[in-house]
Structures are given as structure tokens and as C-alpha cells.
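ok, trying the design again with the full structure, not the truncated one.
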């Protein structure tokens, strides 16, 4: 709740500074011809902000969609205004030398702001729906020969509540996954934003996901109802149980701190799933030790073999789990994660891409490895198949907070397991 209040105060402070600065520093805003149109438009913007922040955002029964779009509309307008003010301030610099100030706000700031406005709305109306298929080869000499070429389609972070009752995108995503004919489908958490009720329009569609080895899933931080206000703790727990039951009703195998095995001929690989492992402010429920000791089917005679003697694949929502714990404390060969969304913004090509997400998550998108499982040490510049534990971070298909994706398209990852070769990973800071 405190975090929400802080965000609201930031919005209000930003609006006050921008509008006040334009009024003081942009003479045209005060001229009789433009004064009342500008003031009228500013009042409308403030009205939009007040309505948006007044809508409940932690109410279980309310939709986030109207609030999300209102705030995004307001923010896109104030990006333009902020650009005008910023360039107007730049135009004041010559006054330090007693020169005439330059009116850059109107002639530079406004065009730059309008370009940003257009880019933001392209990301909202088109970018968030343009699915990208990413193909990655992951090599390990421990992979059994019979699993050579085994394919996994990974999806993550659907955040169904963001789509309301619009099922078109999720339907297209399901069709795209099925078209790849993967051996296994892995979902790495954050099915919803706040509550299990968000799944209702999508259950039939998600039930269409199909692969010979099924759909295996884990829970993400948003799946536990921590972002909604509940009347009782029991009500929250009951909702989480409903979400678990919903996934099972769709034919998904949910791994809550447990593992399962896949058999081909005489060979076996192991799929391990942990509940969300998180750092504050995210709740942490993941227990890798318990997952390695608990088969999803109680009473099954299958047991994990001795350390280092079998191929193991882990589903863990937060990539920090791998970076800080998994690669140091286990013999997991490959970890699949999501969570970061690449902060829904990235620039550059896939091989050389930057996202502000790197400031929070050193491993924010793509394939990562380290030369040593025991040290953070130096970034990996060269790749030798099977030299270390590996991580793939899927940047998700949905959004949270604001409805846009710019340079970080909704991702489906088709991972091919192989014994040799492989895709060169990103260096890990």
C-alpha cells in the first residue's frame, strides 16, 4: 500500500513541476491567445490523473484495465510536456553568458516529445501484440543421447488481468506455440496479476496448449494474491488454491517445490519446479532442497540420481534465484525463468540489446552461463559446451503496470537441447 501511495505522489509531483515550469518558462503559454486553451487542457489532464489514481488498484473484484490505460494516456501526454520543459531549460543556458535565451521548447522539445508520444502509442497498440519467436540451442554433454534435439517451448508472464476480456492475443499466442510442435511446453509463472478470477475468459483457450510431454508450470510472484487486498488471510490462500486447481483443470502439471521425470527409451531427464523465489518486496516460497526431494506423484519409485549423474532442468520464475543460489548450490544444468519483462523496453539487435532491466536484474533476457558455478568472477567471453550451469530468461508475453512493449516483443522461446554446439550466451556481469 505504501508503495502505491509513493507512486501516486511521484505522478502528482511530476505533473506539478512540469505544468508549473511550462507556465513560468514558456511565454507563449501565458499569451492571451494560448492562455485559456492551455489552462483548459491542463485541467483536463489533472482530472484524468485524479480519476485514474482514485480507481481502486488492490480491489480483487475490480479491473485494472481502465486505470492502466488512463495512467498510460496521461503519462504519454506528460512525456510531450516534459520534453518541452526540458528543452526550454536547455535554451536558458546561453543566459549564463548574458546572451539571448533560445526558445528550444517549442521548436525542439515539442517535435521530440511528439516522436516519443508516437513511439509510446505504437508500443501500446502494436508492439505489445507482435509475438517474437526466439530459437535457442542449449548444449550439455550430460544430456542423454535419446534426448538429442528435444524441444521446449517456453512462455512466461501472461498477466491475464491486463487483457481483461480480450482473448485475441492469448489465442494467437497459443496457436503460435502449438505450431512449433514442441516436445514440452514450460510456463514459468505470473499467470495473473492479482487473483484467480482473471483466468475465467482464458481457461478454454489455454487448455488448447498441446505437446507430447505436456505443459509444465510454476508459480510467479503475482500468482499468490499479494497485490490485492483480501478480507482474510484464508480468503487469499483459497484464491491461490483456486489458481492451482485452474492450471490442473487446463491439463497443466504444476510443480510446487517438486520434480517429475521424462523418459525416452532407457534414458531419463528430470524437470524440477520451485514456487516463486524472491527478494523483498517479492514474497519467497521457493524451496529447491524440497523440490529435489519431492516427486510430483507421491509414492513414485523414481528418485533423483546422485549429484552430477543426470540432466536436470529447473523452472524458477525469478532469474535471481539462479544467479544467487542455484548455480552455486546444485548441479542443475539449465534453469528457465521469466519475471523481468525486460521492463517492456529494449533497444538494439538481439545479440547486442540493452534494457534498463539490467540495472535491477543482471540476467534480464536471453541465455546466460558462467565459467564457474562457484564464483561470480569474470564475465564469460567464450563458450564451451557444458562448462557450467545455464540460465534462459524469457522476457514474457504480457505486461504489468502499463500496457506497452517497445523493442521487447512478447516472447515465445523454442529451446532445443543438444549435446554439442549450442547458442553462445550473454556474459553475466
Amino acid at each position: 500500500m505504501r508503495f502505491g501511495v509513493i507512486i501516486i505522489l511521484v505522478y502528482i509531483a511530476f505533473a506539478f513541476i512540469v505544468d508549473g515550469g511550462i507556465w513560468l518558462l514558456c511565454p507563449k503559454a501565458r499569451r492571451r491567445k494560448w492562455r485559456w486553451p492551455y489552462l483548459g487542457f491542463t485541467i483536463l489532464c489533472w482530472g484524468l490523473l485524479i480519476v485514474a489514481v482514485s480507481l481502486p488498484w488492490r480491489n480483487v473484484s475490480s479491473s485494472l484495465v481502465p486505470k492502466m490505460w488512463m495512467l498510460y494516456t496521461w503519462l504519454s501526454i506528460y512525456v510531450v510536456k516534459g520534453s518541452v520543459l526540458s528543452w526550454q531549460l536547455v535554451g536558458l543556458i546561453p543566459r549564463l553568458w548574458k546572451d539571448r535565451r533560445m526558445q528550444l521548447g517549442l521548436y525542439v522539445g515539442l517535435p521530440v516529445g511528439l516522436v516519443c508520444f508516437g513511439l509510446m502509442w505504437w508500443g501500446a497498440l502494436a508492439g505489445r501484440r507482435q509475438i517474437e519467436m526466439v530459437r535457442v540451442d542449449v548444449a550439455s554433454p550430460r544430456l542423454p543421447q535419446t534426448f538429442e534435439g528435444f524441444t521446449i517451448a517456453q512462455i512466461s508472464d501472461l498477466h491475464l488481468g491486463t487483457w481483461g476480456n480480450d482473448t485475441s492475443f492469448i489465442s494467437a499466442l497459443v496457436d503460435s506455440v502449438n505450431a512449433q510442435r514442441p516436445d514440452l511446453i514450460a510456463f514459468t509463472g505470473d499467470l495473473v496479476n492479482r487473483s484467480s478470477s482473471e483466468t475465467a475468459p482464458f481457461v478454454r483457450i489455454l487448455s488448447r496448449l498441446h505437446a507430447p510431454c505436456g505443459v509444465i508450470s510454476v508459480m510467479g510472484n503475482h500468482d499468490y494474491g499479494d497485490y490485492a487486498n483480501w478480507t482474510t488471510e484464508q480468503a487469499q490462500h483459497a484464491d491461490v488454491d483456486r489458481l492451482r486447481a485452474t492450471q490442473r483443470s487446463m491439463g497443466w502439471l504444476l510443480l510446487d517445490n517438486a520434480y517429475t521425470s521424462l523418459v525416452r527409451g532407457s534414458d531419463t531427464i528430470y524437470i524440477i519446479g520451485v514456487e516463486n523465489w524472491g527478494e523483498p518486496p517479492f514474497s519467497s516460497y521457493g524451496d529447491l532442497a524440497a523440490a529435489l526431494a519431492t516427486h510430483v506423484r507421491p509414492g513414485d519409485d523414481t528418485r533423483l540420481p546422485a549429484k552430477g549423474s543426470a540432466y536436470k532442468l529447473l523452472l524458477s520464475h525469478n532469474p535471481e534465484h539462479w544467479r544467487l543460489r542455484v548455480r552455486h548450490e546444485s548441479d542443475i544444468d539449465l534453469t528457465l525463468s521469466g519475471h523481468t519483462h525486460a521492463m517492456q523496453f529494449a533497444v538494439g539487435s538481439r545479440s547486442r540489446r540493452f534494457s534498463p532491466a539490467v540495472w535491477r536484474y543482471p540476467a534480464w533476457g536471453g541465455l546466460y552461463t558462467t565459467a564457474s558455478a562457484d564464483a561470480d568472477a569474470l564475465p564469460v567471453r567464450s563458450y564451451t559446451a557444458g562448462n557450467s550451469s545455464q540460465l534462459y530468461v524469457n522476457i514474457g508475453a504480457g505486461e504489468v503496470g502499463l500496457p506497452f512493449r517497445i523493442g521487447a516483443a512478447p516472447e515465445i522461446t523454442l529451446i532445443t537441447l543438444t549435446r554439442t554446439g549450442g547458442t553462445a550466451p550473454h556474459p553475466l556481469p
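Keeping the full-length input from now on. The radius of gyration is 24 Å.
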